[in-house]
Design a protein that fits this description.
alpha+beta, 5-stranded mixed sheet, 25% helix, globular
Length: 190
């Protein structure tokens, strides 16, 4: 989320209509619209690295890897968010021509100083309303640190943290790589 918030209620339908014509992206949360700010270079490199790694891994599967240009609709929370990376293997998403998906199994946010507390708190709580979501991953852009929140068999979210030298495992898509692959070419972090 960003600094600019609408002060009046906007319906999801009006939000979608406006978003299709807007030159900038906005996230939608419970009737309010938030303008998104541009990402810094480390943020973009990290997200691009992960998209490349996941696309290569999932190439021969029905799953799709999506970048920050696709919205995720959280119907129960009445939100639309633009995650940095999302993976959906659900046929309703993979065959749809909508500009949003409904059934991601994996959502990744690259943390920015201005959004980190929201991404950890309210946004994560909103994402937990998605029945399809199995992993929510937060990647720090200032240090080698990946937090992976996994939904366990008891229905609880359990966090596993990865740091420099670790191998990162994403159970939702049966993917692993070294943390350095995620941070490859990020200035000052390797």
């Amino acid at each position: 989320m960003s600094v600019s918030k609408s002060s009046f209620y906007i319906s999801p339908e009006l939000y979608l209509e406006g978003e299709r014509e807007s030159p900038i992206k906005h996230e939608y949360r419970q009737g309010h619209v938030f303008a998104m700010t541009g990402a810094k270079k480390p943020h973009i490199i990290i997200a691009g690295n992960l998209v490349t790694l996941l696309n290569n891994h999932l190439r021969d599967t029905p799953c799709i890897v999506l970048t920050s240009d696709i919205k995720v609709r959280l119907e129960a929370a009445n939100c639309y968010y633009y995650p940095d990376v999302a993976v959906s293997c659900d046929e309703q998403d993979t065959t749809s021509t909508e500009d949003f998906i409904l059934f991601p199994s994996l959502v990744v946010e690259v943390l920015s100083p201005s959004t980190a507390s929201f991404d950890r708190g309210e946004k994560f709580a909103d994402y937990q309303t998605l029945p399809s979501l199995r992993e929510y991953v937060l990647i720090n852009q200032s240090e080698m640190r990946v937090e992976c929140f996994r939904l366990n068999e008891l229905g609880s979210w359990v966090c596993q943290t990865y740091e420099k030298g670790d191998e990162v495992y994403l159970a939702s898509v049966n993917f692993s790589c070294t943390i350095s692959e995620i941070y490859q070419k990020v200035p000052g972090l390797l």
